[in-house]
Amino acid sequence: MMHVEQQPEPTPPGFDFDGRVRQPGLSALAELTGQPPTLKRGGPRIARRADRIEDLKPAVLREYDYWTRALDALHAAYGGICAYACVYIEPLCGPTVDHFAAMVSAEPRLAYEWSNYRLACSLMNARKREFPDVLDPFRIEDGWFVLNLGTFKVEPARGLAPDLEQRVRETITRLGLDSREYRNLCGRYFDSYWHPKDPAHPLPLWFLEENAPFLAREMRRQGRVRPEDLPPGPHSSGI
């Protein structure tokens, strides 16, 4: 994992988050608790399901999943990079809206707040679920997580305070950042860079930086890039 810079809430003309997600969501919450809708819309009233917003269950909120309207805008805002796996998610292959503060534990209004959204591939979202032991990509610092380029397992950096190291380990375990699937993914990118099928057309490092930025950063940090990709200075490289 690496730090993800929080992007501003999208506004028109690109995407009207407030009008398309927040306000419909808040209106649905009002009706679900027996209050008048705050937006005019066609169709029948939404049936009352609880006395208080705080008592609404996640299953009820998922019936009014207006956050899915923001998926394209979320994908564009974060360059298509999964906040947890740090790889590009093809739109065809399951980008999802992760509610960082999960709906089972958060105030229901957060279901319709941009600041609570993290772009996640479907596997990472399924693994994170409502568990509270995953560090927030918006809050972590670069360098807390490192990649072992021999095993392609994500590991805690050396020298972290014991409590922080434990949090990093819990995040790695929960998300499966040391799993076979993740190791194979990183390994394939790494091998494509170092052992291209056509040596006359090697994979450029910028491709890794756009599609697997955590791997590319670790390759640069550890000097495991081709000489032409090294910054000026006394560096060495090799596989």
Can you tag this structure with a few keywords?
single chain; 239 residues; mainly alpha; two-stranded antiparallel ribbon; 8 helices; disordered C terminus
What features would you describe in this structure?
This protein is mostly helical and 239 residues long. The chain has 8 helices and 4 strands, in the order αααββαββαααα. It has 2 domains: 17-128, no CATH class; 145-229, no CATH class. It has helices at residues 17-32, 58-61, 71-77, 122-128, 162-175, 180-194, 205-211, 213-221; strands spanning 95-99, 117-121, 145-147, 154-156. The strands form 2 sheets. It has a two-stranded antiparallel sheet. A hairpin with a 6-residue loop joins strand 3 and strand 4 (154-156). The longest helix is centred in the N-terminal third of the chain and has 16 residues, at 17-32. It is elongated, with a radius of gyration of 21 Å.
Helix content: 25-40%
Number of helices, where a helix is a run of at least 4 consecutive DSSP H or I residues: 8
Strand order of the largest sheet: 1-2
Oligomeric grouping of the chains: single chain
Point out poorly predicted stretches: 235-239
Sequence of secondary-structure elements: HHHEEHEEHHHH
Q: Which sheet architecture does the biggest sheet show?
A: 2 strands, antiparallel
Radius of gyration: 21 Å
